[in-house]
Amino acid sequence: MVQSEESLRPLYRLMVGSGVVGVLILALGLATILKFAPPGQASGLKARIVGVYPYDPATHRVTGPASTHFPRTQPFAAKVDWSALPGGVVVGARWYNTLDEPVGGVGPATAASLAATGALVPVMTPPGLHANLPGNYTLAVTRYSRGQPVELLGREVVLVERSG
User: Fold this and answer.
1) H helices of 37-153, where?
2) CA-CA distance, 114 to 153, in Å (whole number)?
3) Which fold has domain 48-160?
4) What is the pTM (predicted TM-score) of this model?
5) What is the residue extent of each domain of the chain?
6) pLDDT, tens digit (0-9, with 9 covering 90-100), for 5-36
7) C-alpha triplet 110, 113, 114: angle, nearest 5°
């Protein structure tokens, strides 16, 4: 039994306060999800990445066969079949290095405008460096809505080797 001098009121207030904080955290998490990944944004579209090729920055053209491995000193770029997507869809593509830093990309723009220019997606060597960092480089092709990326349409990973 609880003695009359003992009060449970402070413990009760602590439990109610903890519950209110938990509900606030949950509501903030749900609001964040609804803002950055609103329901109904999945379109079912898939981007076709033709391949990743050695790239000549002087001529802005790809050369040679497609590959998934490159030496550090070899610039490379991806070919994406933009014409396979509906023309009015706003899309973009970004390369991310092994540190998840963006290191090149195109867009956001309509798929029709990217298809008309034949836009390649080259990796740009970071300023102050003479070669790419070794590790995995990831190409993400995304669909945009109201200026925000909302759907991943395609992904490709290549390896930049330590030696070379």
Assistant:
1) 111-117
2) 15
3) Immunoglobulin-like (2.60.40)
4) 0.72
5) 1-36, 48-160
6) 568 888 889 999 999 999 999 999 999 888 77
7) 90
